[in-house]
Structure formats: structure tokens, C-alpha cells
Amino acid sequence: MNKYWIVTSQVYRKNLKSGSWLSLVLSPLILLAIVIGIGWYVSQSDQPAQVAVVTDNPAIAQTLKKANDADIHYQSLSAAQAKRKLKHESITGILTIKTEPDISAKYVELANAETSADLSKMRAALTSLKTSQAASRLKLTSAQLQALTTPAQVQKKTVAIENGKQVAKSNSASAANYAFATGLTIFIMLIITVYGQMLAQEIATEKGSRIMEILLSSVSATTQFFAKLTAILLLLVTQLAIYVIAGGLSWTWLKQQSFVEDILPAVDLSVFWSTTSLMAILFFIIGTMTFAVLAALLGSLVANQEQVNTAVMPISLLALAGYFLSLMAQAGDSMLIKVFSYIPFINVELMPVRLALQHTTLLAAGISLVIAVIFLIVFTFIVVKVYQTNVLVYSEAGIIKAIRQSFRIWQAEWKK
């Protein structure tokens, strides 16, 4: 057991200091910091458009001023005052309103204005004034006018089918689930690809430098195999712990910012601490371990470090297959998607996305998870045997022939 932890510690510390692992950990944090910084800067510098209202009807100007909000501020000015302020670039634009025969307007805006006025809001305010003018001419009461202008009400209700029954869901949960599924797909694909290549590189480097022969004289191949898997898993746990700590520290500041406070009420974040998240984490762990075992197998088949990129191609292909199928699942739940969500290697990416999008049930996800766990156990047993017989085989004949050679050696030892 002591040798096991020595190997685990050596592999862990070696990769912990490597530039590839540090860039993998820091790149998402730097990118997220840039995005948050841009959002904060925009929210701090975003000022309402200052619009001068020029009209022969003071009541209209007063009505528009009452419609001031965070996007547009109206101020009543004479034509001369408005032109003077526009010339000095102290206002965004000039809204000239005519009331006869009907309300009509012309808006002139500076091309280099810091903030552009929202024309849709401006048009809505003028439309309301024009409607009031028409109602006055037709001698409609305020109640009649309200009845005519009140839009039709359409209530939206989001449901999911669970165990053959409709279950009500929050309308905002759909957007949160979609964002969660998209982020989860990309994250799983990147992690299994990078960590798989890292483990394969580790084994191939030892084989290529013939250090493996020295190591096997004191530590068994099985001990080395599981120690390296443990080290890779500890690296993953370290990365996730860094993200959790960084996220917790950032959230204490973010939740107090205005650009976040405006978004939060409209977003349902319950998906992030629900059963769906728990299942996603389990699939993520099992998937990472399964691809790590595959990487160990492929790394043991190469003769030197130069063959690693070719050897790990199956990892990239399987990861991309799961990624593209996950994207297809976001467009619709076809029979192809349903079948592949139970196939090992693919299901660890696909099933969490289907669950997040509420395209499947927890029972179905549980069945897929059990299949993934059983496959991991059986696959690990087979790979350990191949690893033991092939870790000292230096074949330059290629990956396929190396697999055949390993299988013949394993078969001969099995008969003994």
C-alpha cells in the first residue's frame, strides 16, 4: 500500500506542476473573469439616453417625461435649446413631435452618441399618445379605451412528463436547464479528452524512456495502474475544488452587482442543486474514470512518446461523438438519441444532458448509470490484464498489431 501511495503522489505532484494542467485549470477562470469584467464595466458605464422633446403641446412633453426609465430620459426643450445642446453633444438626440392632424415624430440622433435610444420604447410611448388622441376625437371613455388597448393574455405553462404524468415546471427552468446542459456537455468533453491524453502521455513517457523496466522491479504493474488512475482522479478533484472555492468567493461579490441582480429574479437556478446535478456529477466521475482506463490501455500499447497522439485518437472520437449527440439531444429526443444514451462512453455525456432537458426520467438515467458502472468494472478488469502483459512490449508495428500481440500473450498466460 505504501508503494501505491508513493506512485500516486509522484504522478500527482508531477502533473500538478505541469504547464498543461495549470493552463487547463486557469483558462476557464481567466475567460470567466474577462466576461464578468466586461459585464460589470458595461453596467457601470451604461447611462440612459438623453432625448430632447420639441413640441407645441407641453402636455405631450410632460407625459413623455413621466415615462422616463433606465434607458431613456426625456427633457422638454425649445428647438433652439435642443439644437444648442446637440451641437455641444450634451444630449443624445432630438425628438420633434407634431400633433396635427395626427401625432407624428422625427428623431435625430448623434452618430457618436455614447448611448443609443431604444426606438421600440420611443415608438411605444408615441403610439400610446396617438391612441389617446384618437380616443379623444371619437369621444371614447377611459374604460372603453382601456378595453380596446388591453392586449390578449396568453399564459405559458411548462410541464415535464414523469412516470407518464404531467408535472408542472417553472417557465424559467427551461432556459436554466438548457444553459446547464450546454455547459455540462462542453465541460465533460474537455475534461475526459485532456485527462485521458495526460494519463496516456504519462505511461508512454515511462515506456519510451525504459523507466518502466526499473519501476516494475519494485512495484507491480497492477499497483502502478491503479496508482496512476488515482493520481488523475485526485487532479480532477483538485481542479473542481479550485472552481468551487473561486466560485464561492466570486459569488459573494457578484450577487451584489446590479447587472446580476437584474437577471437573478428571472432565472430558475434550482437545477444546479437538484437531483439532476447529482446525477450529472455521478456520470461525470464515472465517465472520467472510464476514459482514464481507456487512456491507460492506449498508452500501454505505444512504444514511445511520439505515438501518443495517434493512440489517443479513439478518446477524441468518442468524446466528439458524445458531444455532437448531446447537441442533437438539445434539438429533439429522437430514437437514435435514446439508444445511444445507454451505450458506454457515449452515455456519460448524453444522458446527463437529456436529464437536464427533462427528456428522460430519473429511473432511465439511473439504469444508464448502472450500465456505466458495470461496464467500468468489467472494462477495468480487462484493461489491467492487457496492461500487465503489454507494458513492457515495445512494438513499432502499430496500435492494432500491438493489441493483437497483447491479446495473444494474455491468452497464452490465461491457458497456463
UniProtKB/TrEMBL annotation:
Location of the protein in the cell: Membrane
DNA damage among keywords: no
Transmembrane segments: 21-42, 178-204, 225-251, 271-298, 310-329, 362-384
An annotated Gene Ontology molecular function: ABC-type transporter activity
Source organism, top-level taxon: Bacteria
InterPro entries, A to Z: ABC2_TM
Keyword Transferase: no
Record membrane topology: Multi-pass membrane protein
Pfam family, one: ABC2_membrane_3
Keywords assigned by UniProt, alphabetized: Membrane, Transmembrane, Transmembrane helix
Recorded GO CC terms: membrane
Domain ABC-2 type transporter transmembrane residues, every copy: 21-384
Protein name according to UniProt: ABC transporter permease
Organism: Liquorilactobacillus vini DSM 20605
Lineage: Bacteria, Bacillati, Bacillota, Bacilli, Lactobacillales
